[in-house]
Design a protein that fits this description.
Helix content: over 70%
Number of helices: 13
Radius of gyration: 19 Å
Largest sheet: none
Distance between the termini: 51 Å
Order of helices and strands: HHHHHHHHHHHHH
Strand content: under 5%
Shape: globular
Structural class: mainly alpha
């Protein structure tokens, strides 16, 4: 007798496979880190990333390239958020990425307190082109810190009988790691954001003094996150260490590159070395452990 999945189980596994394809196509860095997760949290983190990427693509170019104006983009984004809410409530969506995310949200306790700020930040991209420190912080909370908190919910709750509330130090670490990731990407994409999208997320970070201040903030956030990674469940530590160290390496390379230089990248060989280091259980770069 065949033990192949059928019905909802087959559909959900297919949805997970679609989410995995999204992360493999869009991010080699996060794709490498996700492969270091244990089988318990791995599909759920991919499911989060896939939804985040789809929402981001609505506001960052592909929807515009397809001929959608900002109001239509807003309507599509609103529709996606409504689909997510309905799928979490019902346990099903005809959209495979939404179905995968909803399954993760239901199992791991990801609620509207994290989902609503994310979509609010995505909407900001439709009508805000320049950020000051206050609007930057609000944007980064919704676009990146809550994603870190969603992943934290997965790390603690995937496969458990009921979701548990994370400790305060883990919450702070997840938020600061997400913020560091976002600010690194803002610096990497400074020229593209300005030239292609007409956006300035860092309030003039092309200026050397301002750029240094942003990098100092990134490194402080990375150090704070590194301190709590050892408190994560064992099947998550290597992956989070790898992601942390990849972005620490990007930060280091950004300090050595002038504003306006080609987009900073970590060579594949260095990525492999950092992944191997994390897999061996080494502490995060910059950690005092």
């Amino acid at each position: 007798m065949s033990n192949a999945p059928t019905g909802l189980e087959l559909y959900s596994q297919t949805a997970d496979d679609v989410a995995a394809a999204v992360i493999s196509r869009y991010s080699t860095s996060f794709g490498i880190a996700a492969r270091l997760l244990g089988p318990r949290p791995r599909p759920h983190v991919r499911n989060i990333y896939a939804l985040v990427r789809v929402a981001d693509e609505i506001v960052d170019g592909p929807a515009h390239d397809a001929g959608l104006d900002p109001e239509r983009e807003r309507a599509v984004l609103d529709g996606l958020e409504a689909e997510v809410a309905e799928a979490i409530a019902s346990g099903f969506s005809a959209n495979l990425v939404v179905h995968a995310f909803a399954r993760t949200a239901r199992e791991c306790g990801i609620g509207d307190d994290l989902i609503a700020p994310f979509f609010a930040s995505m909407r900001t991209d439709l009508d805000t082109t320049a950020h000051d420190d206050m609007s930057h912080d609000a944007y980064v909370y919704g676009s990146a810190e809550v994603v870190g908190l969603m992943c934290l919910q997965v790390f603690l709750n995937a496969g458990m009988s009921a979701p548990a509330k994370p400790a305060a130090d883990l919450v702070d670490g997840a938020r600061r790691l997400g913020a560091a990731f976002q600010d690194v990407n803002f610096l990497r994409d400074l020229s593209d954001d300005a030239d292609r999208l007409g956006r300035d997320y860092l309030d003039g970070a092309a200026d050397d003094e301002r750029r240094t201040a942003v990098l100092d903030r990134i490194d402080a956030d990375l150090a704070a996150a590194a301190a709590v990674i050892p408190h994560l469940p064992p099947d998550c530590r290597a992956a989070v260490t790898c992601a942390h160290d990849l972005f620490a390496e990007l930060s280091r390379r950004l300090r050595l590159s002038p504003a306006g230089a080609p987009r900073v990248r970590v060579p594949d060989g260095v990525k492999a070395t950092l992944a191997a280091r994390a897999l061996l259980g080494r502490p995060p770069k910059g950690s005092r452990s």
